[in-house]
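Example 3.
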Amino acid sequence: MTSTITEYANTIDINFPVPGKALSTIKEFHSNFNKIQKSFTRASLEINQLEITSVKFTENANFGGQIIKKANFENQSWAVNNIGLVTDIITNIDCSLGYYHKIKIENGTYSFNIVNWPDNNRHSKIRVELNNNLSTTTTSYISFSGNIQYIGSEAGTLTLPGDKSAFYDIWTVDNGESIFVKPLSTTYISTSTPGGGGGGGGTLPSITYINPQQAGSSGGYIMGVVGTNFGATPQIIVNGNQTPAITSSSTTEVYFYSVAGMAGLSHSVVVRTAAGDSNIVYYWLYEDATGD
Amino acid sequence: MPSTVTNYSSKININYPEVGKDNDSQGFRDNFYNIQAALLVASNEITDLQENGVKLTQENDFNFNTIKNAVLQNTSELAPTTISITTASSYHIVDYSAGSYHRYDISYSGTGTYASFEITNWPASDLYGSVKIQVKPANTSTCTFNIAGGTVTLLGSNNFPRQYNQTKPVIYEAWTTDNGANVYVVELTSV
């Protein structure tokens, strides 16, 4: 956009007053002063606009999603989001707060939900550090919520020696519709074994994939996990979301109804019990609407 | 910061001189003063924009101010010229501020090469900095590589120094969030 100050500045009569001529009117003075003032007003507006919208070396700059093109970067750094110790099962990672997210964990079940991805058709990547907050070895069950595709190794049981860290690169190109997760090292990660079909039995690992073979249903689903020594309040997380309605719980069986988003063939299910997953005997799943 | 040009320009008396009055020449001087003052303010504000504003036509040093909510397209990162390693044992400073991708080619033709790399000039604490180091052995005789400085943790089951018998380049990515006190390294060519 070109400056429009000259719209007024060009009309200033720079030959007024004319030498040797008596002034016939003083309106020319008024006209010139008026045009000078209008030129300043226009200049002020334009400077204002530049100051509001320009990037300065001396301030942080919010580009509002605009594109920086054909730039060559040297000696740059990225913002760090220090989340600290998490105690909830589900933790949001806000990728708008930084590229590198430092999270402290202890023994437990953790599901991480990444929010505020950039718009569709933007490649956005974050790096997550999970650091053992304790000086002793911890065992955690790690999952990431959403439509996750693991590259190299799935998340799963994470056994971290004291003070050690595990790292994950996570990216999307479609606003988080599909999310890719790549552990940077599998040293501390043991991948759980996929489970069987919807009605199948067997031992349920802490994280498993169940295939109910009931895609596209509008009805709800019922899932149950049967075992021993679950404790009074077992927790179930499906696709990163803690189930909203555990309708019954006991020390031997838990089940829940109508969990949204169960239609489809692949789900991430985490069951956290007082005694760990070794006590799970079998699990089942069927479609509520049809009773299949 | 809004422009303050109008603090003076609004004081210009656009009705001076007044019709039918014996106008004091002070009115002219007042107007000229306000015109000059407005020009000086405009000049300072434009100078600030010229000195501190990002230019599309030259290098821009952001001094670690934050660039937020930006989409990068067709951008690149500086990769300094490849350094040739000509001796059996060598120590190299990898200057983070000089670029993000540092290449080393071993041209020493003997056997038993050892090269150690120390990364300097990391960003300040609580900023994440990452750099890649590529080392290309000259032959399949044993090459030993080490990354030093701070507490260096190589992810995976191996530790530094690492030994190789290959001609393919070895590429490491190293990063820190505490100005290099703790440096994590992943060997990209093995993951």
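Residues 58 and 191 of chain A are 47 Å apart (CA to CA). Chain A has three domains: 6-53, 80-190, 207-287.
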